[in-house]
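Message: Study each token:
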Amino acid sequence: MDTVQQEIAQAAAALVVDEGLDYGQAKVRALKALGLPARTAMPDNRLVEAAVREHIALFHADTQPRELRALRELALLWMERLAEFSPLVGGAVWHGTATRHHDVYLQLFSDDPKAVEVALINRRLDYEASTVRGLHGQAVEALTLQVRCEALPGWVGLHLLVNDSLAQRGALLPDEQGRKPRGDIAALRNLLASHESDPA
């Protein structure tokens, strides 16, 4: 294995776990922190994820399981509140690598792009809207809220990505490692009930 890529992966993993950065941001920051040239080959996400799990096991084994559970329970609460939009949870919260520094990402589905906003307004919730890349690479609206997580305790970023209904096709197909990339309400409930950190 390339030693330089391993070093980048380990430095990136620390940023992912301790600052809540996504893999792309963390790799760029790690490259700069290590003083490596901009053209240096980056480790792939599988290598970074392995380093993330190693970093958690070494430095956060006593706190991360509780923080992960708190974030999963928070995700489930909001998935149940927004059940009409067939929510799916993904990212570090789903894959079991989240710490208190991570946000919650939910994929929602609606043929009316404003329906989710109306649901939030009806609940008198403040949010910020932006445009991000959706499940299949298309531009979608993202609604971001700061929500209280009493179990941590603290505030957590909740990102609601609003896809059209057709985007549900393939949303649960296994990724390149054969894992489900995200889960629905039932799958998250089962994960919480099983006390497993990583979905099968």
